[in-house]
Amino acid sequence: MLDTPLARFKSLRVEFQTKDGPVAGVKDVSFDIFPGETVCIVGESGSGKSVSSLSLMRLVEFGGGRIAKGELLFDRGGGAPEDLAKKPLNAMRGIRGNEIGMIFQEPMTALNPVFTVGRQLTEGLRLHKGLGREAAEQRALDLLRQVRIPEPERRLQQYPHELSGGMRQRVVIAMALACEPKLLIADEPTTALDVTIQAEILALMDRLKRETGTAVMFITHDMAVVAQMADRVIVMFRGEKVEEGPVEQIFEAPQHPYTQALLAAVPKLGEMRGKPYPEPMKLMGKTLKSDAPIPGTEQPLLKVENLTTRFPVLGGFFRRQVANVHAVEDISFTVNKGQTLSLVGESGCGKSTAGRSILRLVEPLEGRIDLDGVDIRALNPNDLRRARADMQMVFQDPFASLNPQMQLVDQVSEPMRNFSTGSQDDIMHRCEMLFDRVELPRSFMRRYPHELSGGQRQRIAIARALALNPKLIVSDEAVSALDVSVQAQVLNLMMELQAELGISYLFISHDMAVVERVSHHVGVMYLGRIVEIGPRAAVFEDPRHPYTRALMKAVPIADPRNRKSERDLNFKPIPSPIHPVGYEPAPTEFEEVTPGHFVLVSESGY
């Protein structure tokens, strides 16, 4: 690490124009980033983390912001540092992507839907590095291998919508690394990734930093990632820097009350050891209605037997079916009334497809789905519509699942109107109760989705899912994109509702610490199959399948003195789930290792 900073933020103030006059997104923030150093900026959504990074790239102007005051000094290696805040926007083109790389939080909006992955990856290399077409394509292939994307040659020809969320995020990371920038700005780069890929991406960024001296400005709300990556930590709250210091000092002796509250909200793997049932987290400044464990019942609500879902792959001149994607392959499990079963695994393993197949948002190929005595697969469209009142879904991205043109009160009341559950006054009264239940003020009822933060939008999605008093809620990565403090509140809300209303959850997640906190039972998925399933304590404290062990080993720990090294991560390449037409996989056989704890013994590729 050198003595002169690579980038300096001096008294930065960024303002946004609103109907009520200018609002400061960042107020008087100053800090330095040195070559070869990782600076983590933490804080909840709306604290000004992303605005600071977008200011350095001069992208904040495209989002309605204005740098009102301050200097943004960047050392380009040719004499005195240049103030990027004063640079004309067209001169920034040579810096963006080439000298400062950026990994954006939302991969679908960061990629152009009309160009192939290969075209987008090679564009920067040809523009900034002057590479020819073949050399750029070869470098793009190497980058995709680096970020561990299976079948990279095929991926170059695909469009962003053909990839899963985790894969798209890896493509965005590969694009940012393409030109080997001096400074890499990573804005929540691992939020949408599962633990195994997150661990490898973090190790990749760490290796890049060591080999090339690249500095990393890492924006995140995941304190375990901060402990794994950071040299220095900057804590932001409501647009201001409230604390700065070496990573050990921030974790072991936080000074500011906000930093202390942030660390208290982090679910830690191992916290639930010895506790048979889930229980809400104790948060600073928040009183719980009850912190009693939630035993649930042993009465089955949902029985899934031999569920299989495959998607056809079309090819050739006539677009005939040439293969199948084996997304979900012969899975069986039971969810009890008032209990939570979590499905964990990495992106592309079939977790979300399993959840959607149970609700018949995706039509399964075979298998039986029994919800409280009703065979869901045997229902005709009218009966299925009625059955949907008992099973609801909370999606991963609340912005995409809410209608941007409808007020929130109409979105929450829409299911009740669709199913004619009462008079207009009854519906309005229930809406008010639901807003109270998810701890949102009733004044929000007349707002639109864009006027809320991510955590508030997710609460609206939960309120809408609760509108019809469902028996089962499928929660698909419902808290993965939320800040730790908001995530802890949403999880507590879901557990309180479970204790009060006896709701069952099928909880789909890749966050092992969250899964440990909320689950009664856990199923681990790999390549469309469940490889291990059992009571939460059995799976977490005595993992038997090699993939489950690898998954546990990859979980970052919120302790900077206990970091994972790249040697700890011995993952095998993920085989392709695509098989030719007519291929029949081996039957699924389980061994019961302890009562209720089953491990896959048939050939599974891991």
Automatic annotation (TrEMBL):
PROSITE patterns: ABC_TRANSPORTER_1, ABC_TRANSPORTER_2. GO terms for biological process: peptide transport; transmembrane transport. GO terms for cellular component: plasma membrane. It comes from the Bacteria. Residues 7-263, 302-552 form the ABC transporter domain. Keywords: ATP-binding, Cell inner membrane, Cell membrane, Membrane, Nucleotide-binding, Translocase, Transport. It is a peripheral membrane protein. It is found in: Cell inner membrane. GO terms for molecular function: ATP binding; ATP hydrolysis activity. Belongs to the ABC transporter superfamily. This is Glutathione ABC transporter ATP-binding protein.
